[in-house]
Design a protein that fits this description.
Largest sheet of chain B: 5 strands, mixed
Shape of chain B: elongated
Shape of chain A: elongated
Distance between the termini of chain B: 97 Å
CATH class of the domain at 62-205 in chain B: Alpha Beta
Strand content of chain B: 15-25%
Radius of gyration of chain A: 24 Å
Order of helices and strands of chain A: HHEEEEEEEEEEEE
Strand order of the largest sheet of chain B: 5-4-3-6-7
CATH superfamily of chain A: Thiol:disulfide interchange protein DsbD, N-terminal domain
Number of strands of chain B: 7
Oligomer: heterodimer
């Protein structure tokens, strides 16, 4: 009788992985990050960075603006335009000390003589952080920006930013 | 004997589970393929004709040839303006936002053409549509553009009635009967804008 029970258990164990496969959802395409960039027009490229323990250390976060679009720099020339701004919260043993933005590049809309100050393609935001101890810490925050193309604009958006910072 | 029956039963159970898993997997794959096929969009250039002017759905509802949705909104100085009251005139309904550079590029053109075609009963209405701005913010932006035509504070109800996409500026050219002659998602060139205005005026006068 014990042998019979063993056979049944073995049969069920054999079948379990196949049953699990059938229960998994199937996802075609799978390029969710790309879809998110299309929707948001901006994508975070650096989701994991390394730094040294102790003192003030510089880290760099890279973002990409969808082709054909621009977002205002942190210091747009027009007060009515919405500046790009990154907020990243200190967490655990990691303190975010400062955020430094790159200079924008001049960009003229068709039929306009006043150049805008924008980020296009890839831009990099420099942060200074201080990690008290070794280990990996998840830093959370957001990038606030407003995207336009040559002829029209999308409403301001907030991109969630999650970065795994490893201090060694 | 009993042992053999039970072993055979176990094997049958395994086979049954495998077959069930296979059927579920096939069914899910077919459903996923159908969904993917339904979502597939071919982006091909349109050659000519009416289809060349097609407005992609994500840029808002195509209202051309339809009655412009009526609205009553308040101007920056507190006056109420109802679109229906402007029947008999050609009306430009321009949705814009203070943060929108292309909007503020085209607004002085509306001002210029509003004056140029005033004798043809052309009326320009600017409908500010954005979250988190005050009338003072809007007034400041309007002052920068130098326009003097009425600026109305649009609401979600009006935006929904026009079927706005997630995109500004959007302009509707409405004839004297209240029908949308043309609409422009995004800022056109100045020449394109004037050509559309002339078309709308001609429709009003026909």
């Amino acid at each position: 009788m014990k042998a019979v029970a063993r056979s049944l258990v073995a049969a069920l164990l054999l079948a379990a992985p196949f049953a699990a496969v059938s229960a998994q959802s199937i996802s075609l395409g799978g390029d969710n990050a790309h879809s998110a960039a299309k929707l948001q027009h901006v994508l975070l490229l650096s989701d994991a960075v390394e730094t040294k323990v102790g003192g003030s250390q510089a880290i760099e976060l890279r973002f990409r603006v969808e082709d054909g679009f621009h977002i205002n720099s942190h210091h747009p020339k027009d007060e009515l335009l919405i500046p790009t701004a990154l907020k990243l919260e200190s967490a655990g043993a990691v303190q975010v000390l400062s955020v430094d933005y790159p200079a924008g590049k001049p960009f003229k809309l068709p039929s306009s003589n006043d150049p805008l100050d924008v980020y296009q393609n890839e831009f990099r935001v420099m942060l200074r952080v201080a990690a008290k101890s070794p280990g990996t810490t998840e830093l959370n925050g957001s990038l606030h920006y407003q995207a336009c193309d040559n002829a029209a604009c999308f409403p301001p958006r907030t991109l969630p930013v999650k970065v795994l910072l490893t201090a060694k | 004997m009993l042992r053999r029956v039970l072993v055979a039963g176990g094997i049958a159970l395994v086979l049954a589970v495998l077959v069930t898993a296979g059927i579920h997997n096939l069914r899910d794959r077919r459903a996923a393929m159908q969904q993917a096929a339904a979502q597939h969009v071919d982006l091909t250039p349109v050659a000519s004709g009416d289809a060349a002017d097609a407005i992609p759905p994500e840029l808002g509802r195509d209202l051309r040839g339809k009655a412009a949705p009526d609205f009553t909104l308040t101007t920056l100085d507190g006056r109420h303006i109802q679109l229906a009251d402007l029947k008999g005139k050609t009306v430009i309904v321009n949705f814009w936002a203070t943060y929108c550079g292309p909007c503020r590029v085209e607004m002085p053109w509306f001002e210029e053409f509003g004056k140029k075609y005033a004798n043809d009963k052309l009326v320009v209405l600017g409908l500010n549509y954005e979250d988190g701005v005050t009338r003072d913010d809007v007034a400041k932006a309007v002052k920068k553009t130098g326009v003097t035509y009425p600026i109305l504070m649009a609401d979600d109800k009006t935006a929904k009635a026009f079927g706005l996409g997630d995109y500004l500026p959007v302009t509707y050219y409405v004839d004297a009967k209240g029908e949308v002659v043309d609409q422009s998602p995004g800022a056109p060139t100045k020449d394109q804008m004037e050509a559309t205005i002339k078309k709308a005026i001609a429709r009003s006068q026909s």
